[in-house]
Batch of 2 targets.
Target 1
Amino acid sequence: MARTVEVPQYEVHGEVRLDPARTALVVVDMQNDFVREGGSLVVPDAEGTIPAIRSLLEGARNSGAKVVFTQDTHTGGDPEWDIWPEHAREGSWGWEIVDGLAPREDELVIRKVRYDAFYGTHLDHFLRLWNTKTLVVCGTVANICVHYTAASAALRWYEVVIPKDATSALDPFDLESSLRQTAFLFNGTITTTEAVRLEKENPEAYRSKMEEAARDG
Ligand code: ZN
């Protein structure tokens, strides 16, 4: 029997300012099987997050922040298909990242075999190489791959930011309880796409600051 429980309050932050040089945007599993009609494991709300994710991508690309895509990847006999219907079969249409969010050639695509994008992959290697401090995690599914990736990042002491309108789950309880866990347990920052500010230091302001410093000797 279904029972109603209340999700405890968590803060949804207004403006979140991030240094693009130390930030990576991680777009989780926005693949046809999870997002598009005809996919094998569709999250009905996922398609509606494409514009928000596109806007985050634009912000990251324009500011020079790193961009990472994760791609759930399975082959025949994968035990995950005992838990879920067959999905993300390597090489299939369902496995491909949706058209509207295609990775650019210079962007990292992490093929992952489990919910956690760090598990058995090179993700941490690249984040350390880039001197990354903060991960902005979006995509689907909020309480599964987004959650376990955010959790794994937080355990490694990366700061985690989740714009809640850029993630989706099968059920509102799953979404809310996952965000509450991220805020409460990992000290993560829950926010909205619009509130994420990735701003390169203004070169003019930098130059005048340097000139001022030189003048003052
Ligand atoms: Zn999977």
Target 2
Amino acid sequence: MGSRGAKKSICSIAGLGYFLPEDMVTNQDLAMFVDTSDEWIVERTGIRARHRVAVGEATSDMAYRAAVAALDDAGVRACDLDLILVATATPDTPVPSTGCLLQARLECPGIPAMDLGAGCAGFGYGLHMAGAAVSSGMHRKVLVVGADALTRITNYRDRQSCILFGDGAGAAVVGSEGFLDVIDSDIGADGRGASMIRVQAGGSRLPASMDSVAASLHTLELKGREVFKQAVRHMVDAIRRAADRVGIDPRSFNLVIPHQANARIVDAVGEMLGVAEKNLVIDIDQTGNTAAASIPIAIGRARERGRLVPGQLVVAVGFGAGIAWACQVLRVRER
Ligand code: UT7
């Protein structure tokens, strides 16, 4: 492959926005009703607090705020969009899609809108599909949102999982011109790992019933240790393949942004790749795992901290339920 990051862009992010609800749940709050401690949670996950969606609000409310921020940032009106993709595992309702609810809030009737399910890899899946849509010429301006309210499906009797999850949303306006070029994109899945992260009830296999509710089968179930190992393995492999395709050593990425699931997972990814600490984004202590929102929130916050420097190469990698993964190489441009 040619010189460093010289690859042609697939699409570009013209605007980015994120939203985190005001209400916070601290480790101390959780320790009041589940057998855990602030020390254990901080040491094993790096999380100190997480945001929680307001009473009466849902995923589309957070998605709307993130979308408005991204549109503002891009200087684009909602009516100029021609596709809306919402990656979420926690839609407001099973029917209709959160994408359509968001479209109504944005007051842009007629624009195609849909949901996309790829767990915590959802934003990367959305970005990949937006890239395909833009580079084929079928769409010009795509709104990609990653939004989740995991606290709504968390089992607060399961100390292993309830400490991890927080709520939030992130959004990007994607077109052919922007400040963050997507120069490489890859997605993958392995459905054999479906039982590692799942919600068993509430779908067509096990419709909601008194029994399913009593057994907490509508909450998220996680095989923690197994997911930990798979997350590290798949994110490392995805970054290595991406580095190969753009013709650089993985250590040469200026910023590595893995899905923020657990600080120890991010650390392990960095360690296995030999990434310098200053080039690794660990931004989980006040957010927890926000699922499909994690990557756009982490990119947005890295940018606010001046960590997106023109000319540099960033790699973002997601991993989640499915199991599914997504990896994008981004080149930062002058604004
Ligand atoms: O977005 C993708 C989806 N999610 C993830 O990527 C999460 C991946 N997994 C993880 O982050 C970690 O596996 C967990 C945070 C879920 C668990 O951490 P761990 O270091 O893998 O702990 P463990 O499951 O190996 O458990 C170690 C001990 C156990 O006690 P014993 O059997 O050794 O006596 C657990 O019962 O820690 C205990 N434990 C806790 N203790 C205090 C588990 N959860 C807690 C807790 N507080 N909250």
